[in-house]
Amino acid sequence: MKASGGRYDGWTSVALALTGGYLLLVIWPLIMVLINSFAGGGEFSLAGFEKFFSSRLYYGTLINSVLVTVCVTVLALVVAFPLAYFMTMFRIQGNRTVQMLILASMMSPPFIGAYSWILLLGNNGMITKLIESVIGVKPPSIYGFAGIVLVLTLQLVPLIFTYLMGAWRTIDVALLEAAESMGITGWRRAVQVISPLLWPTVLAGSLLVFVRAFADFGTPMLIGQGFRTVPVLIYSSFVGEVSVDKSFAAAVSVIVIAVTLGVFLVQKYLVSRQNFSMTALRPIEPSRLPGWRGVAVHLYIYGFLTLALAPLIVVVVSSFRNTLYGQFVDGYSFENYLDSHRDILRYVGNTFGIGITALVILVIVAVLVAYLTVRRKGMLSGTLDTMTMVPYVVPGLVIGIALVTAFSQAPLILTGTFTIMVIALTIRRLPYSVRSTTALMYQLNPSIEEAAISLGASKFRTLVRIIVPALAPGILSGAILSWVTIITELSTTLFLYNTSTQTLSLGIYAEVIRGQLGTAAALSTMLLALTMLSLILLMRLPGGQRELRV
Amino acid sequence: MTRIALRSLRKEYNGQVAVPNLDLDISNGEFFTLLGPSGCGKTTLLRMIAGFNSIEAGTISFDDIVINDRSPAARNIGMVFQSYALFPQMTAAKNVAFGLQTRNVDKAETTRRVTAALESVHMAHLKDRLPGEMSGGQQQRVALARALVIRPAMLLMDEPLSNLDAKLRVEMRDTIREAQREAGITTVYVTHDQEEAMAVSDRIAVMNLGVVQQVGSPAQIYRNPANRFVAEFIGKTNLIERELHHRNGATMLDLGDGVSVDVTSTIPSTITGRVQVSVRPEAVSAASEGLSAEVVAETFLGSHSQIRAQLSTGETVEFLEFSRRAALWERGEKVSLQLKTDMLTYFDAESGVSIMHGAQR
Ligand SMILES: Nc1ncnc2c1ncn2[C@@H]1O[C@H](COP(=O)(O)OP(=O)(O)O)[C@@H](O)[C@H]1O
Ligand SMILES: [Mg+2]
């Protein structure tokens, strides 16, 4: 393009405006956190960091977090690899439904999983009670390390699974046949021939699992009890269960960001060393697997599905149980829904109001940033692209803290407002949206845009009339996925809401903490229903299934 | 309809020179082709005319008005791309209508012109199809209609036929030529295919490494190439190297085996020394006497054969022969070759530049 040589035009203004907004709303708040981490009592000090590394009570949380994260990442890979392998190679009964349900379990809010495993295996859980009444002994506790790993693994297996399924589709049958002709078949072929081809995908998927598990707050908060992870430590030192120490919370946040960034850079380096691309002329056709092997494969897949869906079913069923002072008692009715219908209406209203506003802004910003990075390569758009990736390595909780820190004093007092909720959710999702929109933009032939301009259309008209409509199916699918993650987001908004901006997921969290299990189950059911409806809508869109990546 | 003048034009990509210094004049209503091997700068030049590439030096004028700083949208051009570049979400008719809508043409007029444009490329019956539902050839017809419907000052086409199969290419190039004649529109056409260029063009500019080697009609370029590059790039030719002799005011070229040509009237007498002779295959025929050679191979192609023979000097000469003999040539068979001396062209052995009277450049 003519102006890509650095000429000033309307697009430069857009780039400048976006950069300015990003500096104000993301970079500056994060810098505030950084400053706070080094400033105990108004002057430079390393007190926050010293405190963290001085007591096992604190640095132990980092060890816990790393332990959980590594276990979850490895386990998720070990479970997901055979799952993806079987689904690609063999004809599975109800294949499409299975895929859909696995995705549904991935998109459900993680803290609902934690909460419903408590309902199943907690001190008063259904299974706990059942086992106790049959053999008279209490089964081992779900709380702590094992519970966190169980919940997060079940939650994140689908994520790696989706990545792997995508990668399998790029493998040409000819590769498998070539291996077979050399006498390499079955599991040896999977490990020796296919695994190396999937390596970049495995790395990318693992990173995502790592980042998610490391930053997850809801699960360890609900099910961790004495086993505290870093996000829980940040939370408690920021809200001050014991004592408020914001500079300590900031220091811990900085440590978390540093670890995530480190892992991110290592992954980038590993991927850059392994650069190849494939497209399958003839993708793998699943074949029928007869006999006991077929049965075993089905058992594996349906076994996983049962484990993954159990929490969701439990929540839905529980929502109809009677409660007394928040605890479940015998009998079923709609009372959980009816008794708190006012709150429910408020939560749902806020979820839609805040969620849709955030979504609209998100889509517009993502399209603009993607356009700038793909079509107007240059310093400014390069910077913008890098900046939008920042929240990727910053846990949601820390984004929340940063926004609270930056916007709770004059002249910008935004905490507790509708605006700050929208800003937080937009920022949180932006790295993912920008990346998927950028990928779409790269697929669009640049000649199409030039054709429009040669026909006399302005650049803005070209964007609105040609580019966006041409990408509309992809943008719409991406928007639905973003919508699902926005309505299920918890940690980012935890410090920012008040009763007038409380959403469904915040409501669930509050009710669980308050011990109102019935209301929590009813809210969770509604959130799940909303998620499922969105996913079904997504599946019905042309090409929607391809978009199912997070 | 517009005259295009390029003066001292220069293009660099990040300091890398793609076009060093280029002058060209394209006349009103002319079908002008930029021809050259891949990477020689054809696309670069076309996109400079369109306004999609920056200009490092020089000027581009349309009808004597310098338009260097005019945006592509304001240049009133019709463009046809190799990849068709139809708007994927719009039907054929909507694609064609787009340019009229940006020009605020009223509805009835738009419908009328869209229909006429689609008819002129034989696509009216598919006006409600989406690009994804059309073949490559059909898409390119729609793209042509879309470019022409706005009545642009000029039509710019970058390898519009490269993505089509051989048969469609021939069909489509006739459609393009027809539509261009009908509209009488100045056209700049880019291709690397010399046969395609010869078939459609009024004039051709042969380019290499960002430099125009020769501008002329297809016949001029073929019969009188400005240099060795053009001779070899346009059609096939055999190059042999010989010495000029000046005797009694006449210039003679000794071809060997007692055959010599009097080139007094074709080559200026000031030129001496070694020259390269370009011998087109059709200038060679097997005869009872002439240059003695030995057959290396014959490729039988049905209506004719392509025969490769080696001269006694070791040089290889290729020529064509219409199929008429019962038997094919044998490898090693002796043959005498006669050259049509009026079809030979001559180049300086060192520089490769044509040394003939009236040669360009
Ligand atoms: N956008 C670009 N950036 C850098 N170099 C380019 C770019 N476009 C073309 N070039 C270079 O300019 C030269 C001419 O390219 P091009 O005009 O595309 O040739 P053609 O169309 O004749 O094949 C080539 O050496 C090519 O590598
Ligand atoms: Mg080109």
Automatic annotation (TrEMBL), chain A:
The keyword Cell membrane applies. Residues 62-267, 348-538 form the ABC transmembrane type-1 domain. Its main location: membrane. SUPFAM superfamilies: MetI-like (SSF161098). It holds the Pfam family BPD_transp_1. The keyword Cell inner membrane applies. It is a multi-pass membrane protein. Belongs to the binding-protein-dependent transport system permease family. This is Iron ABC transporter permease.
From TrEMBL, chain B:
The keyword Cell membrane applies. Gene3D superfamilies: 2.40.50.100, Nucleic acid-binding proteins, P-loop containing nucleotide triphosphate hydrolases. InterPro entries: AAA+_ATPase, ABC_transporter-like_ATP-bd, ABC_transporter-like_CS, ABC_transpr_MalK/UgpC-like, Mo/tungstate-bd_C_term_dom, NA-bd_OB-fold, P-loop_NTPase, Transp-assoc_OB_typ2. One of its GO terms (molecular function) is ATP binding. It comes from the Bacteria. Pfam families: ABC_tran, TOBE_2. Keywords: ATP-binding, Cell membrane, Membrane, Nucleotide-binding, Translocase, Transport. Residues 4-234 form the ABC transporter domain. Belongs to the ABC transporter superfamily. This is ABC transporter ATP-binding protein. The lineage of its organism: Bacteria, Pseudomonadati, Pseudomonadota, Alphaproteobacteria, Hyphomicrobiales.
